[in-house]
Amino acid sequence: MMCLERSWSISVTGPKLLLLITIQRTVPARLPGRKAPYTVTYDVTDQNGNAAIQVTRTVNVVDTTKPVITLLGDATVTVEVGSGYSDAGATASDNFYGDISASIIVVNPVDADVVGPYTVTYDVTDQNGNAAIQVTRTVNVVDTTKPVITLDEYLPDPTVNNTPTYSGSVADASNIVIIQFRVNSGTWTDATFTVSINPTYTFTTSILTDGLNTIEVQAQDQSGNWSDLGTDSVTVDANAPTGSLIINSGAASTTNANVTLNLSAIDIAGITGYRVANGADASGAAIVPVTTGTTNLILDVPWTLSPGIGGRTVAVQYCDVVGDWSINYTYYINLNKPSSADGDIISVSGITEDSASAITVSGLTEQSGIIQVLAFTGHNPFIPISGGSAIIAGLAILMISIRRRRSKNRGDDSVQNNTIMK
Predict the structure, then answer these.
(1) Rounded Cα–Cα distance for residues 99 and 97 (Å)
(2) Beta strands in 162-257 (DSSP E)
(3) Does the domain formed by 345-421 have CATH 3.30.530?
C-alpha cells in the first residue's frame, strides 16, 4: 500500500526551553473504500510532566481523477451489408485502480443486415465514482455489392409458343426494388415481383418473331446497385415450313418413270424430315429424316412415278424441329411413254437405198393403248402403218409417230415421235 509521508514541525515553549519536538506521522494515501478523513494528532510532555494540549491535523485522501478509455481499432469502420460485424472493443485505465477494462459498458446497436450509420458507445466509472469521458465508434453499414439475377431457361426450345412466360430469382443482402426484362435489345419492361430481399419474379414476353430471340433481365437493389444482365435465348417456330417440289428441274413431261425430285424447303428453326408420295397427299408416307437444324433444305431425290402412261402427280411435305408439317406441295408431270421394263422399245428395220423400202416397226404390237402409227419420210404425207410394217417410197428420213391413249377419255392422247435418219 502506498503511503502519504509528511513531516510536521511542532514548537514547544515554556519557562525553560528544554527541547524542540518534531513528530512525523505516516498516513496511508490509498485506502479503497474509506469514506472518512484521516486525523493526525500531536502530543508532547515536558520533563516535569506537563502535557501540552493536543494538536490535530485533518488529512483528506481523495480520488477525483477520471479513468481513460482507449479505442481498439479505428474510430470509423465501414462494413458491407450482410457480412456481419465484430466490434474491436476498447480498454480503460484508472490512476488508482489500474486496468478497469472489464468494467466498460458497451452499447452496440449495429445491425449488419440493415444499411445505415451506427454509433457504438463505451463508458466506464471507477469505484470512487469517477466517470470516464465517453468514447464512440461510428460503424457505417453499406451496400456496394451487385445483386445476382437468375433467369430460368425456357423449355422446350425450340417452341411453338411465341409469347413465353419466364421466371427467375434475385439474390441480394438488401431489398430489390426494380426487376426488368427486354427482348432482342428492345425497351426495358417491369417484371412482376414483390419488393424484398431475394425475391422471385415472372413475366410474359410480347409476341416473338420466328427464329432466335434473346431475353435479358436486370435488377436494382435499394442502394442503387444494378445487377449484371441475365440472359436466355429461345428459338420460336410458330409457323410450319414452306417449300416447293419440281421434277426433273421443272420438266413438263418425261419418257421415263424414273425421275428426280427437286426438293426445297425453308424453316427458321430447321427442317428435320420430309415425306413423299405419288398422288396429291403425302401425309401417309414414310418420314425421311434430314440433318437436324437445316434451315434451308435443297435436296435431289430419285423417285419412280406410278406405273402407266399419262399425267402423274407427286406430293411432298416437310417437317420442322417442333413437329409442324407443311402443306402438301405437288407437281404434275406427263409420263409419255412407259418404262423400258414394259417393252417400250421401238426399232425400225428394212431401210434400204431403194426408192421404195419395206420397213418393219417392231415392238408396237406389244404396247397397250396404241391407237395410230404413222410414218413420214420428210416429203410424203404420213403413211399409216398397220400390222407393224409398210412400204414407203423415196425413203430418206423416217419419222415414226405413235399415238397412244392416256386414259379412257377420248382425245386424251399422247404422241411419241421417233426420228430415224437414213
Answers:
(1) 7
(2) 165-171, 176-183, 189-190, 192-193, 200-204, 211-221, 230-236, 242-247, 253-254
(3) no
The structure's pTM equals 0.57
DSSP string covering 195-213: SBSS-EEEEE--PPPSEEE
The radius of gyration computed from the CA coordinates of the chain, to the nearest angstrom, equals: 58
Residues 6 or more apart in contact with residue 249 via CB below 8 angstroms: 260, 262
Report cis status (omega within 30 of 0) of the bond before 338: no
**How many angstroms separate the most distant Cα atoms in the chain?**
205
Q: Give the C-alpha separation, 331 to 264, whole Å.
A: 13
CATH numeric code, 68-142:
2.60.40.10
Q: Cα–Cα distances in Å, from 30 out to 5, 33, 124?
A: 12, 9, 21
Query: Measured between alpha carbons, how far is residue 235 from residues 154, 321, 395 in Å?
Result: 10, 10, 71
Tell me the CATH number for domain 242-335: 2.60.40.10
Q: Give the cell for residue 142.
A: 453499406
- Neighbouring residues of 409: CB distance < 8 A, sequence distance ≥ 6: none
- Yes or no: say if 126 and 96 are a contact pair by the CB < 8 Å rule: yes
pLDDT digits (tens, 9 = 90+) for 90-142: 999 999 999 999 999 999 999 998 899 999 999 999 999 999 999 999 999 99
Cα 240–241–243 angle (5° rounding)?
Answer: 140
Q: Which amino acid is at 348?
A: V
DSSP letters, 271-306, are EEEEEEEESS--TTSPPEEEEEEEEEEEEEEEEEPP
- Give me the CATH code for the 148-236 domain, please: 2.60.40.650
